[in-house]
Amino acid sequence: MEAVARTLALAGVIALLGFVAAAPAGARVAPEPTVDIQPVAELAPDGQSIGVGVLASCPERWTVVEAVVTVSQPGASGQASFPLTCIGSLRMFAVTVPSSGGAFQLDEAQVTARVVITRGRALRADDSQILPVQPTVLVELAETAHLESGGGAVVIDVIVACPAGTNGLQSSLVVSQGQAIGAGTYLPICDGSRQTFSVRVEASQGVYQTGIAQALTFANIEFEGQNFYGIDDDGALDIVS
To answer: Got the DSSP string for the chain?
Structure first.
């Protein structure tokens, strides 16, 4: 029995040596493509798209056949590709997936991501997750502000859009120019459409003049006890009379 065991062991060693000798020098297992969905999806104010973050990679010199993200909810679904190239390292992609039917909602969404690559043969990577969908806030400052009260204030338009079902919170707008600075407030209306607010900013110090100024705004909203905001700044705001 002991002799049989020694014979089997010797046969195994010979087979292993034969495999090593047959393998080409420097041969290694080809790296696989990867795709990883990030943990939160973001709803556009009008509900017509959802943004998803995807971390993906594929080995150098391979060709991407497909790199897509699919989002589905009971009343809406959509698919979008992302521009993956095979460079051998991980990259982050912000993928906007438009709805091909109804509007997406502030609810959970089934998100899947797929990468298919080829180089003589095809390799594939998949990820699928159920993600919470959070609201996004669009905010845009006008390029000009109007001087009022002999330079004691300026009025500037702010465009805000936030998803229906969220609540606007008091939001701030700061305008500075040299020694002059002041702040104003507005309350976003969240119905999915773009709303324009004319915000009066009174100087708390100094006097505004015609010319270039700086502006910064945070548009704040609330959803299910959490605060979300959009931000915009303009380092070349034109104050006109």
So the answer is: -HHHHHHHHHHHHHHHHHHHHHSPTT--PPPPPEEEEEEEEEE-TTSSEEEEEEEEE--TT-EEEEEEEEEEETTEEEEEE------SS-EEEEEEEE-SSS---SS-EEEEEEEEEESSSEEEEEEEEEE-EEE--EEEEEEEEEEEGGGTEEEEEEEEE--TT-EE--EEEEEEETTEEEEEEE----SSS-EEEEEEEEEEES---SEEEEEEEEEEEEETTEEEEEEEEEEEEEEE-
